[in-house]
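Notes from hallway chat w/ T.B., transcribed later so I don't forget. T.B. wanted the structure written out for a chain they're using in a teaching module, and asked if we could keep both sequence and structure tokens in one place. Agreed to drop them here.
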Amino acid sequence: MSSQPTYRRRTVFAVAGLTATLALSACGREAATDTPGAGPEAKPIASGKATGELTVWAMGAEGEKLPALVKEFEAANPGFKVKVTAIPWDAAHDKFASAITAGETPDAAMVGSTWMGEFAGMDALDPTPESIDKSSFFEGAQKTTEVAGTAYGIPWYVETRLVYYRKDLAAKAGFSEPPKDWEGLKAMAKAMQEKAGAKFGIGLQAGGQGSWQSIMPFAWSNGANLTKDDGKAYNFDSPEIAEAAKYYQSYFTEGIADKAAPAQPTTEPDFASGRVPMFISGPWMMSAVEKVGGAGFKDKYSVMPMPTKKSSSSFVGGSNFVVFKKTKNRDSAWKLVEWLADPKTQVKWYQQSTDLPSVKSAWEDPAISSDEKLATFGKQLETAQAPPTFPSWEQVITSFDTEMEKVTKQNADPAAALKTVQQQAESIGTGE
């Protein structure tokens, strides 16, 4: 059994191809500067319909479902064809890196948000044309496309993390309303153990790969910033992150969360049985817990925003969609990307894939707005944040995950652990 959340399912925050990432992290970015707005020129998109043919790469379920979506775009542009190649996630990063090196990239592609700095650093991406309204997207998601002040592509779909909780067991523990701050969350978690029969009050990841996605929402809610020096350097050892790490650690030292949680989570059955009545995860877990919980279970649980310290913030993930510089059909590629960013297309994609729209106005559609739990995710997306788009991010964050495991499992001092992370981050550098 595990109280650990399934932290990476729909998030395109891949760690596949880490060896290639480490090698490529050292690549400098020649095309962009560190002055916002002074990067590569974003050329306009020619008028008229899309013509010719495009090759597009996409990963996982999105790669399988995208061909059906783009048929509508093809129909609106007679004679135009889109060839979608579905790529397995575990091979995707290395395939992209090899294609960039060989100058054989697709015309456009779905790209993981933490790959943006690396691929822009290799001068592989075409800047986003001004005709695409960047303000139409959730701010945190839009920032994942920006490298040193230049936007590349669009945030295609998004997700963020909320606290899932059993309403029925919360009531038994004496809570008729969900808590709003750090103190309240811990109090309810303890009460779940003492009054509602829970083995652990909340499921939190006990360090290890990807655990930063669970810890940083608390830090961001405490006003933390992962960068300093005008966004040019890492900032892991700040007081705000240290305080959040100490708060996170307390759940394990006080026995509220399971420090011995196995690597393969069993979140859904633990939540359905009440053994672990709270966990933090993304929107995909709604269907997962309802399937395990059975008929009527959807009324037994709800979701709440990340608890507030100075504010309420969470992690924003998802996927971006980019156009590669080597494309021989640039205008048609950007016309496809524009269409993918249309609110109506975003709603259709949600209905086909359950991927949440990155365009704010799409959330006004009844297909999404009528779902109370989804609406809470939408509200959290307004303040959700992403890590910096430094090319070395994947390499540096491995150190954070390793040190945080010492904090949760060995009761290591959070501040000292973060100083170690900062020292390693400074040694590695940003990769720019």
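Follow-up for T.B.: Residues 53 and 129 are 20 Å apart (CA to CA). Might be a good example for the class.
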